[in-house]
Amino acid sequence: xxxxxxxxxxxxxxxxxxxxxxxxxxxxxxxxxxxxxxxxxxxxxxxxxxxxxxxxxxxxxxxxxxxxxxxxxxxxxxxxxxxxxxxxxxxxxxxxxxxxxxxxxxxxxxxxxxxxxxxxxxxxxxxxxxxxxxxxxxxxxxxxxxxxxxxxxxxxxxxxxxxxxxxxxxxxxxxxxxxxxxxxxxxxxxxxxxxxxxxxxxxxxxxxxxxxxxxxxxxxxxxxxxxxxxxx
Length: 232
Known about the structure:
Oligomer: single chain
Number of strands: 0
Helix content: over 70%
Number of domains: 1
């Protein structure tokens, strides 16, 4: 590629890392919005999703233009492909973050059991950590760090299972109404999906470094933007 094309690829990579950093910061913010049922904060986060979507779309289109006009090869081609695919992972993660804020509006005025609040905090912290590790693996093109993301994902899956069990316990104790229980189950799914997108990013790192696809693993249906239960 020409020098200008190499510089353009570096700019797209930097833009990717900036958007990823924004996602990482938004996860604990949205967790706080959910726990505090902060309607103003929820509205701001939900509205900002449109601007984030536009930026990830621009990133995807610019990477495609670079590949079409500059014909990168080998590692440079993989870097452009990874940017294109990673932009979609970030966009879907942003949707999940916005969905957490929508849950805060649906349960507004409801008092959550402390057991649920603790587990929401734990899932939020773990999802943020998992996404951060995946992004660090991409930034450093580090296979060992990328491999650790799957281990972190198992922990997040365990927390989701524990959270669902706690929902049943709270329902049995008559301290959780059915509509809120449904929203809590959806919340657990949102965090679990954030973890899945972090794993996808780690897989992209493996492709970037080795040029091969990672070993296949069971995949789940993407419900980044499911039909809201009980309205927004």
